[in-house]
Amino acid sequence: MVEDFYAPAPVTERGHSVRLTADPSGTQFVYASGKTIIMRSLTDLTQATEYTGHTHPTTMARFSPSGYYIASGDTQGNVRIWDAVGSEQRLKSEFRPISERVNDIAWDSESQRIMVVGAGNGRFGHVFLFDSGNTVGSVEGHAATINACTMRQQRPFRAATCSDDGTCVFYHGAPYRLNRVLKEHVGFVHDVRYAPSDAYFASAGADGKVFLYDGQTGDLVRQVAEGCTDAHRGSIFALAWSPDSRHLLTAGGDGTCKFWDVSEDRLAHTVRMAQGAPTPVHQQVGVLWTSAAIVSLSLSGDINELSMQEDGPVRVVTGHQRPITAAAMSGGRQLYTGSYDGKLCRWDWSAEETRGVARGVEGAAGDVQVDAAAAADGHVALAYMDGTLRALTPGSPAVQQSAALGSGSRSLAVDRQGTCVAALSNDTLVAVRQGHRTELHVPDSQSPATAVAFDLVSGVLAVGFQDTMVRMYSLDSAGKLQPAGRVISGHVREPTVLAFSPDGRWLASGDAQGKIIATDLAPGGAAQPPRRWGKHTSRIYALAWAPDSTRAASASLDGHVYIWSTTTARSTDIPAAHLGGVRAVFFPDPHTVVSAGADGGVKVWGV
């Protein structure tokens, strides 16, 4: 039922490299994001699928040389080997070769032996058969966390590892055993990679140097371009070989990626990610070079397409690295998603060619969580955890600070004129009109407000309260609330989200217990019992009505999406829509539902 999946960005951590690895054809790559493994096309970065078999945050994944399997690791030392062909993603085997974070995985050319390295209590790596788990060697010689490993694909088999202890270790195999310790680097060694030809392997580290070694003997050949005046100024976090083994690509903490001509021992080209002085978000922490594309990864999570003919990235693809916490859709054309780390993305739904492309929004708050979002007639309001309200007005590409709310928000609503009402976490209800904040006095309730929504037809404001009631008001020009319409009861827990249907006839209210009540507000509707929808098992995060006002979609902490009907008792079920919970849901057109979740991704469902 899922038609499109717009993937989250790779999760990054300052001072650590990220593994971007490709399938044997070089047209698809995989990376870790939260508890999922993302498989993404290199020829069309909007095309992606996910693997959700891990129960702990994932760290990296790598295709087998045969292309039939993927081995993925997590923060607890678990390695899962699963089917990469077909949609079922069946688990082949699972092992825990080390006790802590998996930093890298390597396969031999026969797709039989796997080397796993990372952090552990006394053991930093292991070599075993992928199906039985039988030991086929040992990883020794390091005194600290191992950051990377690589295996020679030709006989005689060889392998190399690098570590925070400042050394690389060279192994003979199989079975794999220590042959020599390489001590050319000063400081952490972040990456080591065999060339596709297997003639050499190269290492890169915090000293900003790249060393080249003989692939069969482990002898040092030379430092690459020693004495180069335009070398990296700082750590090199990752390296990749060109498919023809003639060039190396390195990712630096100085915000650059550098192409090195190995055959001529010189720097061939530099790509700078920042137009001016680089900032920490421009640090390059991962690279990948295949016959289909050359990409690098910024600390910000941006995926950069590179070329040896361009001084800057050819294209930058952004996305969320952290759970999406709030979202709003404006007119079915612009989707805004905000995440735990404060990142705000805009998705253009007006054209097929731009639908899966996220763009950053100028003026976003940066590193402050987006608590709530709402939109109406081109007005987009964003409430942040630091108590600020920011807004986009129709036609404006940038976010502007609108007002200081004074607290984080539980719920947010906006009307056609851009007036915002927020239910704050400090138990107050406020309105913001043209940048002026007014605290609202509720005339008929002493209970704190927990959810708000505007009827865009009548302008009526619905407010849910902690006492489980939903009441309706008119908001006059003086900022005063007057009771207007019915009082809705029936919830057992406090309402968490409210949504009016586009024609104003229905009000759907979802609560903290996962129950939904749809109330008919039409004349005579009070005589009809409300619709009660109760499949969810946890808090309702979002509700959205279809354009025809006869169906509503619900999103919950339980990770499921359900589509309900006011005319029939049947529902359309979308189980396990997002790992960790669904935070937002929308109906951009009668046949499409869009959801966003704690996995940082956006999904499009045909209904």
Automatic annotation (TrEMBL):
GO terms for biological process: actin filament depolymerization. InterPro entries: WD40/YVTN_repeat-like_dom_sf, WD40_repeat_CS, WD40_repeat_dom_sf, WD40_rpt. WD repeats lie at residues 51-83, 182-223, 229-270, 533-574, 586-607. SUPFAM superfamilies: WD40 repeat-like. GO terms for molecular function: actin filament binding. Keywords: Repeat, WD repeat. One of its GO terms (cellular component) is cortical actin cytoskeleton. Pfam families: WD40. PANTHER family: WD REPEAT-CONTAINING PROTEIN 1, WD-REPEATCONTAINING PROTEIN WDR1. This is WD40 repeat-like protein. It comes from Coemansia interrupta. The lineage of its organism: Eukaryota, Fungi, Fungi incertae sedis, Zoopagomycota, Kickxellomycotina.
